Amino acid sequence: MLRLVAWLQVLVVAATISAGCGASSAKRSQAALSRPIPTSYPGAAASKSDLARWMGATAYAAGLPPELPVMAALAESGLANLSGDSDSLGFFQIPARIWNKGDYAGYPDKPELQVKWFIDQALAIDQRRRLAGVDTKDDSTWGEWIADVERPAAQFRGRYQLRLAEARRLLGS
After folding, report:
1. pTM attached to this predicted model
2. What is the mean pLDDT of each run of 10 residues along the chain (173 residues)?
3. Beta strands in the chain (DSSP E)
4. Contacts for 145-153: CB closer than 8 Å, 24+ residues apart
5. CA 140 to CA 87: how far, in whole Å?
């Protein structure tokens, strides 16, 4: 288990550094090696950094940029697992009337299913974007990628890209 945690730490730090975060982010990422990355949901009382690192490690293991779910969750919920009377719930404000069934049944109470939903949607869109010739390694396109997952109203599509620096900070702290 410790070997897996160490490997995930290296993967997230390498992804953060290779994404061109700059020297100060790289130093923060190296400092983060002393803190274990949660391999399972770290809990409702976890820090934003621990939640981001959990989401990022899960996304990276699935072949996605670790920043992707963090950017989405920051824009949709402030990186909080929102509940209540609304139809849109969780970190990604997933519409319950559409998604609270099948593979995602019970997602409002299961953060792991929320991240699975995001990753499944992002992977499907990744295939379409690659076929269209979009360079999915180009971080300037990630906000649009997330918008394709989240499907907000047109005037809100640009809000995801604005969260890249904050996502990187949380992943590296």
Report:
1. 0.78
2. 40 42 38 54 94 95 96 95 82 87 88 94 95 94 96 95 97 80
3. 88-89, 94-95
4. 145/68, 146/68, 146/71, 146/72, 146/75, 146/122, 149/72, 149/92, 149/118, 149/121, 149/122, 149/125, 150/72, 150/75, 150/76, 150/92, 150/93
5. 31
